C-alpha cells in the first residue's frame, strides 16, 4: 500500500504529475541535483553494504573520514568507518523495513561527531537496495546532553531542597514541642508550687493532731521532720496552728493536683501518641479544648477566648495533626495581639463538612503579605521568633484531610482563619 493510501489522502501517482516534456531522465537529473544540494549524506547500498550511489555530502563525509584513501578503497560502507552500519541495524531493517539510530563518527577531520543514521529498505520484501541518510546531529545531541545534565543537577538540587525542607519541618515540630513544653512546665509549676506549700503548712497541724491523739512513734517522726524549722517550745506553743483550716489546705491541694492531671491528660489528647498517624473518628471540640489548654500559657496574658461551639458530629481525621493546626492558628492569633485582645473559636456543621473558625482582633495581615502567608519560611516575626512554617504545615495537614483553609484579614482590625473539613474522607 502506498503512503498516500495509508494516510487516506487522495494524491496522484508521482509519475502522473510529470509535466509534458519532462521525461524520466530529466526527473532523474533534477533529483540527482537536488540530492547533491542536500545537507545530509544520502546513499544507496546493496545487501552486503556495498555503495551503489552516494550524493555529494556522502562523498565529502567518506573523504573527511578517510583523507588518505582513494575512491576505490571506499566502495564498501565498512571502509568508511567500521560500525557505521552494524549487523543488527541491517537485520532490523530487513525485519521491519527501516532502522534509525545514532552513531559516533570519528575521523582525522571529523572528530567526535554524532550522526543520526536512517536506513530504509527500498526493494520488494524489504530487500535491497537500502537507502541511507546520515545526518550530523552533534549540536542537537550536545544540547540534549546538556539538558540531561541540567535535569540531573535539578533533580539533585530538588532532593536536597526536599530534605532541607523536611529537616526544617522537623525543626519546626521540635520548636513547637519546645514551646509547648515550656508552656506546660509553666502551667504545671503553679499548682505544684501551691500543693507543695500547702503540704508544708500541713506538717505542723498534723504533728499537733498526732500529739493530741497520743501516737508517740508518729509524733517522734514528725517532731524530727519539723525540728529544722521549729524547736520544742515553739511546737508546744503552736496549738493555735490547729486553727489553720486543714480542710481548706487539702481541698486547695486536691484542686492543684486535679489541674496537673488535666494538663497531663490534655497533653496526651493533644499528641495522640498511641495513634499518631491513624485516621479515626474524633471530636473536634475535644481537640480544640485540649489544644487550648496546652497553649493557654501563651494566650492567657493577652486575650480572652470566646468559644461558640455548634453541634458537630465526629469527623474522620488524624487528631494529633488537626491539633497541631489548631495550635498554630491559636498561637498566631495570640502573637498578633498586643494585649487585651479577643480570640474567637466558632464551629458549625454545614452539609457534609464542619467549619471551624479561629479569629482574633490583632494587628491583621497587610494585603501584600496575604498571598504569601502559606509559603514555607514566610514570616514577619523577628529572627528567632518564627520559622514561617506554622501555616505551611497547617495547609499541608488540611489538604491531606481534603479540606480547605481560608483566611480573611483587615489590617488593624483582625484576622479570621476558617477550616472546612469533610466529615468523612473520600474513599
Ligand atoms: N492571626 C494572624 N494575624 C496576623 N498575622 C498573621 C496571623 N497568622 C499568620 N500571620 C502572618 O503570617 C506569617 C506566617 O505565619 P506562620 O504561622 O506560617 O509563621 P510564623 O508564625 O511567622 O512562624 P512559626 O509559626 O513557624 O513560628 C506570620 O509571620 C504573620 O506575618
Ligand atoms: Mg505561626
What does this structure look like?
The chain has 3 domains: 38-136, PAS domain (Beta-Lactamase); 164-271; 274-427, Heat Shock Protein 90 (2-Layer Sandwich), CATH 3.30.565.10. The radius of gyration is 43 Å and the shape is rod-shaped. α6 packs antiparallel against α9 (246-271). It is built from 13 helices and 12 strands. The chain has 427 residues and is an alpha+beta fold. Strands 2-1-5-4-3 form a 5-stranded antiparallel sheet. Helices cover 47% and strands 19% of the residues. It binds adenosine-5'-triphosphate and magnesium ion. Residues 328, 331-332, 386, 390 line the site of magnesium ion.
CATH class of the largest domain: Alpha Beta
Structural Rg: 43 Å
Whole-Å distance between the termini? 52 Å
- What is the number of independent domains? 3
Pfam families: HATPase_c
Domain Histidine kinase: 183-425
Protein name: histidine kinase
EC number: 2.7.13.3
